Amino acid sequence: MKSMIKKSLRWSISVGILSFLLGSILTVVSTSLLAGVSWGIGMLIVLFFVFLGILFDMIGIASTAADEVPFRSMAAKKVSGARQGIFIIRNADKVSSFCNDVIGDISGIISGTTTAYVVLQIMIQFNQREGSFIYTATSVLITSLVAALTVGGKAFGKAFAIHYALEVILWVGKIINFFEHQLGIAIINRKKKKKDKT
User: Fold this and answer.
1) How many CA atoms lie within 13 A of 32 on its CB side?
2) Closest listed residue to residue 74, CA positions, set 6, 166, 140, 165
3) How many domains does the chain have?
4) Whole domain around residue 50: which residue ranges?
5) Tens digits of residue pLDDT in 43-52
6) Contact 85/66 with Cβ under 8 angstroms?
């Protein structure tokens, strides 16, 4: 019991540190991209982070819903990405935590702050002061639109991930396989890498 608590605590601390680092990096990137751009470009950046959150939320759900058995069969047939898929499913708790809690939440926070920037840029362009009716109406409209896209997109993504969990995880496995064996970038730290090449 104590070992399990210590393991969970270590994982929680690791996730916290990772969230801080990724949050810092993504915030710097988004701030740099927003510098001097129009509100239209800013809105595209908002949509990018909304989509990023939906995508990783979908991967996190699929990792918990996917069945390992088909991946074993595919791995035996040397299907690209199958072994990576097995790893993802066997570590579904960590994968879902990373995708849903780390990337998903960070994307939501950044899309929110970026939305505020977009509203500000629109108001500057139309010479509207904070507190005016147009400022308030525009802020509510755009914020509500982004919230609707985020919630609606994640709802669709969850349903899709549950029904097509195998396809989603295999797709992710193929991408990881490409990075590991074509570009030489280690994403999954596995032993016996030579035997795992698919």
Assistant:
1) 6
2) 166
3) 1
4) 2-196
5) 898 999 999 9
6) yes
